């Protein structure tokens, strides 16, 4: 048990111990109960700065985020398997317990994005770390960006197979939504084709990997293109990695949204700088 006097951190530490001792992180009564308790603990507004916690708490937080990511991936595969068994999976998405949250969040993200895009919207979008249940891509494509092409990248071939099955029966989405089994660090020139690149919250769970991924995007995205990524703020930093403005080298941050309602993730939008802008900053 991590020793810490702060009651909130003590409670997080207790939940971490319980979660780390589970035999499996696949969806079950115990798994669902513990992660629900963790989310309810970390979601209310809390002034804590997780980046300034002691080393032992910082290490616990990193391990907890990894466990959250693993559990989220297993949950998505579980529901993608169920949905994939239907002839028309899109008609049954409400089986997934957080589907309505994704619908609301995609609307919020679209509204934020539309303030910085042309009125026609983006022509091509890349989603990095789409997973087996790519609800953000699907919600945006279905309800908001109805003529945009979506290229979804994930390093897990099984996840891409499951995801592609979800939209295969839809005549529109199957022509606009594509899945690529690639480590994004191996994708270079293709990144220059996108107007908007989404970076999933769990791509780069530790700080070093997250910054490496962002630097790779800065090197290969087209000047003026938008990077949209999910971050975390305050106590929610125990659930997801935090992206700071200083991590976005080669980009200009144009919008930061920290939720105060049921949404967990913060949303950051940054514009890829022009070559002359990067040079100007370097001279300052």
Automatic annotation (TrEMBL):
Annotated catalysed reactions: 3 S-adenosyl-L-methionine = nicotianamine + 3 S-methyl-5'-thioadenosine + 3 H(+)
Enzyme class: transferase
A GO biological process held by the record: nicotianamine biosynthetic process
UniProt-listed Enzyme Commission number(s): 2.5.1.43
Source organism, top-level taxon: Eukaryota
Gene Ontology molecular function, alphabetical: nicotianamine synthase activity
Alphabetical keyword list: S-adenosyl-L-methionine, Transferase
InterPro entries with a match to the protein in the record: Nicotian_synth, SAM-dependent_MTases_sf
Family: Belongs to the nicotianamine synthase (NAS)-like family.
PANTHER family in the cross-refs: NICOTIANAMINE SYNTHASE 3
General function of this protein: Synthesizes nicotianamine, a polyamine which serves as a sensor for the physiological iron status within the plant, and/or might be involved in the transport of iron.
Protein name: Nicotianamine synthase
The organism of origin for this protein: Lithospermum erythrorhizon (Purple gromwell)
Taxonomy of the source species: Eukaryota, Viridiplantae, Streptophyta, Embryophyta, Tracheophyta
